[in-house]
Amino acid sequence: MEDLPAGLPDHELRAGLARYGITGRPVYAPVGFGDYHWTVYDRWFTSVSDLITKPLADLRRAMETAAGLAEQLPFVVAPVRSEDGEVVVPLNERYALSVFPYVTGRSGSFGDPVHPGVSELLAALHACEPPEDCPVVPIGVPGRAELTALLDEPGEWFSTAAREVFVAHADTVRAKLAELDELAAGLTDVLVVTHGEPHAGNVINSPRGLCLVDWDTVGLAPPERDHWLVDGDSPFYALRWAMDDVVGFTEKLRAPHERSRDAELALRYFTETLKGLQSESVQVSMVPTSAVAASRTRSVQVPLRVSDDRSTV
Questions:
Q1: CA quadruple 291, 173, 136, 113: dihedral positive or negative?
Q2: For labeling, which of 62, 110, 289, 308 is most exposed (least CB within 10 Å)?
Q3: What's the mean pLDDT in 176-204?
Q4: Strands, sheet with 209-212, edge to edge from the N-terminal-most edge strand
């Protein structure tokens, strides 16, 4: 995110970091779209999540799953634990903190070709034993009922421009929801541990090999959930991604929000997603958004440095 989180004083962030024994000055990193990030001493990379769109229980479950996976798979960059053993630390009623090792390496950007070696990482991930209490990813679009209701009665929106573009594409959204139902019938019944977003922005080519970051969308699902981002082989998940974005941007742009650069980007990508659906060209938005929605956050991590004593890679 380019904007700092509203309602998070600096002293609350520092208090959260202190629970990890981190006392250095956090430096804001305006990257990604959804979570907020700071680095500390080029040793830690932190993510602050908005609990309005990402419930604390769900976030903790995902981070605990990532921690469990890191015990089996060396390429998983999992959160470190606080001094009292937590993988997620609440900062106040709205925000929560996770801390990761700062890993040196090169990462791509969302939309870049995915490194060929990612296929091997996914094969190992899909074959691993699911950690206890691993989330199960629903096949259907979270928030579909609310979206369907808005198609019939849009109501009031904080962003009038977003309301106009939504209303103009309402028939397209209805048609794509029906198409998604038809495509779902062709999915495999096999469920494996999936990352959810193994695109180039979530892959770091480090001195120790390829690493996967950003595990808050981890969950049991058909393997196509990961493979389509690598080889484009699943019409269902390509369309599901776009529909998740529609839901996420709809929630964000209907609700009161500050007029900011991030809000401008949200409207831009919302518009592009809807136009892409209408043109029959299902293209993922340049900034992935379900971090905007409750179901997922897509943050592109900056190059990180491996910590000497707490690295998981």
A1: negative
A2: 308
A3: 95
A4: 106-107, 203-206, 209-212
- Three-state SS for the chain is CCCCCCCCCHHHHHHHHHCCCCCCCEEEECCCECCEEEEECCCEEEEEEECCCCCHHHHHHHHHHHHHHHCCCCCECCCCCCCCCCCCEECCCCEEEEEEECCCCEECCCCCCCCCCHHHHHHHHHHCCCCCCCCECCCCCCCHHHHHHHHHCCCCCCCHHHHHHHHHCHHHHHHHHHHHHHHHCCCCCCCEEECCCCCHHHEEEECCEEEECCCCCCEEECCHHHHHHHHCCCHHHHHHHHHHHHHHHHHHHHCCCCCCHHHHHHHHHHHHHHHHHHCCCCCCCCCCCCCCCCCCCECCCCCCCCCCCCCCC
- The string of pLDDT tens digits covering residues 121-140 is 999 999 999 999 999 999 99
Retrieve residue 101's tokens.
Answer: 């090792």
The strand pair at 44-50 and 95-101 is best described as: antiparallel
Query: 14-32: per-residue pLDDT in tens?
Result: 999 999 999 999 999 987 6
| Digit-coded pLDDT (tens) for 212-225 | 999 999 999 999 99
**Which residues, including other chains, have CB under 8 Å from residue 247's CB and lie 6 or more apart?**
141, 142, 143, 144, 146, 147, 290, 293
Of 60-74, 75-89, 299-313, where does mean pLDDT reach its minimum? 299-313
Quote the CA–CA distance of 204 and 105 in Å, as a whole number.
6
pLDDT, tens digit, 9 for 90 and up, residues 265-279? 899 999 999 999 988
Q: Is the Cβ–Cβ distance between 301 and 45 less than 8 Å?
A: yes
**Cα–Cα distance for residue pair 309/101, rounded to 1 Å:** 9
What burial class does residue 280 get, using C-beta atoms within 10 Å of its C-beta: 0-12 exposed, 13-18 middle, 19+ buried?
A: exposed
Amino acid of residue 154: P
